[in-house]
Design brief:
The protein has about 400 residues and is an alpha/beta fold. Helices cover about 45% and strands about 20% of the residues. The protein folds into three domains: about 70 residues, Winged helix-like DNA-binding domain superfamily/Winged helix DNA-binding domain (Arc Repressor Mutant, subunit A, Orthogonal Bundle), CATH 1.10.10; about 130 residues, ATPase, nucleotide binding domain (Nucleotidyltransferase, domain 5); about 170 residues, Nucleotidyltransferase, domain 5 (2-Layer Sandwich). A hairpin with a 2-residue loop joins β3 and β4. About 40% of the residues are buried.
Length: about 400
């Protein structure tokens, strides 16, 4: 006997959003459009949101009353009436800051609620500087930069730092390899300013910047390889930044690789991928290829790569870049074999200096090591990608808090 299936009709309706929930959704949609598109008229908001004219009029009034948007002009000199008014987010309602902590210094960017820079500052840190003094000076640098930019009070600060950030506590994990003042500075700012303070690994912030405004724009899955004084990676899968159980996702510097004399340890990655692609290794490689001997530090490795990409070095530069690409490809192939990200972005001082010349070489080598199709791109965020990512993270957090309509 063949069973017959009765026609069940249309599925039962799902739960209906409450009026307040609907207002929250509509208001956030409008605010998102005003952020991405710039000032818009009520008619433009109606067309972009699909809402009715009365609904748009209500949300415009509601957002104005909440101090979130304002009239920023008119759509045209010849137009008159309320429909011609351009509405924009009140960007100076709150200010945020991004802080990039390095072993050798601190850099600060203060921005408005739309992420537009209003102030910058930096200070060097010497190896013999007392941690307490560095913490005090760093906190004062942040406060002074905000004050001079006209930001009477900061809403959120996001820090970027090397090392492991424990996802459970939001604190830097002590490894003995980084200055103690890194964690002390974050703790001091939290206590002194009494505002939300975010802490993120520097590679992760660079990945946020490249995904939002750089080479990974539009990519939901990719890996960023950071090539600088040290090496690291940031992993974005299905649109989410992955940190791992202990915050160690992307610590590729410890990846054991051929060509090193010993295995890396918990506090020393000299036996790992760092020994092939970190700044000191790149400087040594440049000297072996007969380049003018550079000094020590990030800038010298960056300068060596930029020089090799120029017209002067000729065959020596080509050979240097080829061997550097061989080394980078080892780490990239290992990441691709495990994650299959489809896209690898070369960032950091060395990755950015190598540009398309280095990225292209890595792209040609990966198919020889892996059957997985992988697009290799040079990072394109100008300035400090870490600072840019920190500002974007602080901006997102501040907007999440402030872009809440009145009940």
């Amino acid at each position: 006997m063949t069973a017959t299936r009765a026609h069940a009709g249309p599925p039962p309706p799902g739960p209906t959003a409450s009026p307040r929930t609907a207002r929250v959704i509509n208001d956030r949609l409008a605010l998102g459009l005003l952020q991405s598109e710039g000032p818009l008229t009520a008619a433009q908001l109606k067309n972009l949101t699909g809402l009715s004219r009365p609904s748009v009029a209500d949300l415009v009034e509601r957002l104005q009353d909440a101090g979130l948007i304002k009239v920023a002009g008119t759509a045209g000199e010849d137009r008159r009436g309320p429909n011609a008014r351009l509405y924009a987010i009140v960007a100076d309602r709150a200010y945020i800051a991004g802080v990039d902590i390095r072993v050798s210094g601190i850099a600060v960017t203060v921005a408005d609620l739309l992420g537009r820079t209003v102030g910058t500052a930096a200070m060097p840190v010497g190896p013999s500087d007392a941690p307490d003094e560095v913490t005090r000076r760093g906190t004062e640098l942040l406060e002074r930069t905000a004050h001079e930019a006209g930001a009477k009070a900061l809403h959120t600060v996001a820090f970027g730092a090397p090392g492991l950030v424990d996802p459970a506590t939001g604190q830097l994990r002590a490894t003995g390899a980084l200055p103690a003042w890194h964690g002390d500075l974050v703790t001091e700012v939290r206590g002194r300013l009494g505002i939300p303070v975010l802490l993120e690994n520097e590679c992760n912030l660079a990945a946020i910047a490249e995904q939002r405004v750089g080479a990974a724009l539009g990519r939901h899955t990719f890996v960023l390889l950071w090539l600088g004084a040290g090496v690291g990676a940031a992993v974005v899968l299905d649109g989410r930044l992955r940190r791992g159980a202990s915050g160690g996702t992307g610590e590729i510097g410890f990846l054991p690789v051929p060509g090193t004399s010993r295995l890396p340890s918990v506090t020393d990655c000299e036996g790992g991928f760092h020994s092939l692609a970190g700044s000191a290794a790149v400087c040594a490689l440049a000297r072996r290829h007969g380049f003018p001997e550079p000094g020590d530090g990030i800038e010298t490795a960056e300068a060596a790569v930029r020089w090799a990409c120029g017209p002067g070095p000729g065959e020596r530069g080509e050979a240097f870049l080829d061997e550097l690409a061989d080394r980078i490809s080892i780490g990239a192939a290992a990441v691709c074999a495990v994650l299959d990200p489809g896209c690898v972005v070369l960032a950091g001082e060395i990755g950015r200096a190598g540009g398309e010349a280095l990225a292209g070489r890595v792209a040609r080598r990966l198919p020889l090591m892996s059957p997985l199709s992988t697009d290799v791109r040079a990072g394109t965020v100008t300035g400090s990608a870490v600072l840019r990512g920190a500002v974007l993270s602080a901006m997102d957090a501040a907007q999440e808090d402030l872009f809440v309509p009145t009940p």
